[in-house]
Input
Amino acid sequence: MLDRYGRQIEDLRVTLTHTCNFSCFFCHMEGEPVAGDLLSPKEIALVASVANEFGVRSVKLTGGEPTLRRDLMDVVSALKSVGIEDLSMTTNGVLLGKLARGLKDAGLDRVNVSLHALTPEGFVKVTGVNAFHLVLDGIRAAQEAELRPLKLNYVVNSYNERETLSFLDLAQSLGVDEVHLIELHPVGLGRQAFGTHVSLDGLEEKLRHISSKVETRSKHMRPTYKLSSGTVVEVVRPYRNPLFCSGCNRVRLTVKGELKTCLYREDKVIDVFEVLRGNLVDEDKLNFLRTAFRMALFIREPNFKYGPRSYGEQTSEVARFVPRARLLRYDSRLP
Ligand code: SAM
Ligand code: SF4
Output
């Protein structure tokens, strides 16, 4: 299925909660404002099954911190049961030590673990939490559980930029399969933290010199460097990047039950919460969801179309991000 710009939809990104046990200073919260009631595993699976009919083969779970959902195993098995081939999760990794094996058994295929620092001190500066070693334990547990390929997400900013090449050495010593170097997005708290944004031009230049192979992935047209050391590094550069948007194959399911067609846009959404929660039989819900997907495809458009101004138009967004302590009230599924 193609949108009006000829872009295929292959990937569904599902936000499971807005709650988090970290406070990363740049957190974009997937570009979503605060929500109340969460979707159930069955409701999420209904959306995924229709997405699957529209060509979606991969689903990524995100948040907030997805491992804080008490019913995470149910979400995973419900998604696997509707035929999602590639089911993955992005996590801060701190609970993976406890959960990795169960997640694999429930049907999760792989994980991305976010790690933006080389040392416990650097880690506290980014996340506000002293949990560097717990995350390393989580990475090892995920590897033991065969949640592979295991990828590390590293959001580059002015504090950790100089350590990036050393971080790649750490990744290699940990035996991870891939590293994603992510440009800081001006979304959510990332807007406030945008003073720490750095261009990834210089890093890409260095990567070219130490790579044996450079490729471009179709997803977001991401450049990928195979280092002579064996580590694979994918560079994620969405900021003012038409190429990135041209290769965008993603639709999002927000925590409050909307199909969201772009991380940066609050307006291009189709609300399916009432359909999912309403008193209809499943077949009717599926039919409504099919219509909603067709509409989402129709309204989907690349963000670059609006140029740099579109970032300025999102200023109201930050004000709607509330402190974590207040978010906790909303999530009844917290352990
Ligand atoms: N809590 C999980 C985690 O941190 O991996 C999942 C949710 S987090 C919002 C998803 C991914 O977005 C993480 O890799 C995180 O580092 C990244 N991220 C958060 N804010 C960002 C920003 N402003 N710019 C770029 N990436 C960001
Ligand atoms: Fe939590 Fe940090 Fe992930 Fe945001 S980026 S959801 S604060 S771990």
